Amino acid sequence: MVDTPGITTLLESLSVTEREIAGLLIAGMNTSEITKRLSLRYHEVAEASKSLRQKLGVSNVDELRQVATRPTCRTDGGC
Question: Which ranges of the chain have pLDDT less than 70?
Answer without folding.
Answer: 1-9, 71-79
